[in-house]
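User: Hello, beginner here. Can you help me understand these amino acid letters and fold codes? It all follows right here:
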Amino acid sequence: MSTADRRTLIADTAIRLIASDGVRALTHRALDTALDLPAGSSSYYFRTRRALLTAVVDRITERSREDFQRARFAAPAAASPDLIARDIATWVDRLLADRSDDLRTRHALLTELRTDPELRTKLSRSLFSPDRARELFRDNDSPTDAAVDFIAVLEGAVFDRTTGNRADLKPGTPESIDQLTRLVVVYLRGH
């Protein structure tokens, strides 16, 4: 296994560990145990806890960018708010279905990293791109500052569906996509 592959494996395992057991459970020893590696192996690749947390933030961000590149959205200038909302809702639903560990880890780390402005800022922008949101609103003749508010709506929806009132609504179902579509379309029609 290459060094890059080993680092990715450790970061992925760290994400799963935080998602299942919380941020305090993330230690080099716990990673070595989870990966069935000799003691000290994960600290060879990530010397400090901050280096490990940086790897987790980078991995979540990398996967988010890959997901977004694969997503198919209607061209904003040519599409109705209903169609755009459905596309965004379908993408967010897939995020909820396929990356639940990333989402739970991200929420835990946003609180944990509140005193680390560099990592917190990077993590806060890991799911939704302010630049892409501005493009959406610019193409629809909306004020571009509405984009940041729209990201807050999406962040709230993800939190609600991950750990909030609607955590029991199963992603990957028509009901899930419908609920997200209703939320997004209300915002898009208002701007």
Q: What stands out?
A: The chain has ten helices and no strands. The chain has one domain: 3-190. The mean pLDDT is 90. The longest helix spans residues 49-70.
